[in-house]
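Project standup — Tuesday

K.O.: blocked on the structure for the chain from last sprint. Re-posting the sequence here as requested.
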Amino acid sequence: MKYGRNEQCFCGSGKKYKHCHLGREQEPRVNPWDISAAVRKEFSVKLCSAPDVMHEKCSGKIIAAHTVQRSGSLSEIARDGHVLTFVPSFENLTKHKGLLHPELVGIRKASTFSGFCSRHDDELFAPVEKEVFGGSQQQCFLLAYRAYAREIYTKRAAAETAKLQKDLDRGRSLDTQMSMQMFNFTQGLGLDAALRDIEHHKPRFEVPLLSDDYSVVRSYIIDLEGPPPVMCSGTYPPERDFEGKRHQDLVDITATPHLLSVTSFYGGENGHVVFTWLPEDDPVCLPVIQTLEKISDEDLSSRIVCFLFEHFENLHISPNWWESLEKATQNALIQRMMGDMPTMFGAPRLRHAKCQIPSWNVINRYRVGC
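H.V.: unblocked you, prediction finished:
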């Protein structure tokens, strides 16, 4: 393929091709390990995710805050102090030929991000860290707030690392350059929309916290006998409910999506999977919960595990449980994990294979606040 020297460059820089990408295929390739190091740096930036009005009382010491608590949750499913988790990096994608496989990580590092100072991490989350989980609206909200704080953190870091990817096409053919820059452009649009959405959602999440009024918080709670072998903390925009019906179009980046937060953990006496949202998100979240309620207890574990693997990467898995699964089931879950991963690493998009998970013992299922 040829490209006119005086045409505007395909990369979106606004420069003419001759002043931008001309001769790019002769340039030395970027070392992916250097990019990987830069990515790790961006995902290690230290800040406090407490509301801005609280920052004057920050301790000044940013810690590795756990999204799923280490003591009492991760420790319950760990083996020799380690859990399995997915670590998205060039090294791991290269090692597994474009796929991700769960790897052992010490529970001191698992589920952490540098997103709170020591004071606010201790004070804000004391009701869920230092008390037995009882399903109060405050506890449910704090689980959701921590999950959303991590979402903000990772989105901002991803926006910074996206800039680094623009140089990855050096030393490659023109066709490959154009393909990679198109991927970067599309990804950039999504990240720009995500950063815009943060400005909409962040104040909504801060209102209950600052007013100390959690009466508007909605949740659906599943109580389990024993700790869930897959623990998670995340916030995502549900596109479809559990029956496959679409409720919002995530391709439309002009629309601000509704959000649902999910945390699976051990609450001191029982295991729990907690779905939490705010009133404005009822149009999408209620249909999701209504279809979840229709799933039998017998099938619930399979549906929940597949759901978690499909929508979140912040998963922490019991090594003993994972190794007890058939290889075909492990591969099916990895396929779900990779379903929405970028394809620039060479991995094809994989169909969501069905998998059967041994049933968890469900004690109770109920709504709170709705």
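K.O.: great, moving the ticket to review. Residues 34-368 form one domain. The radius of gyration is 22 Å.
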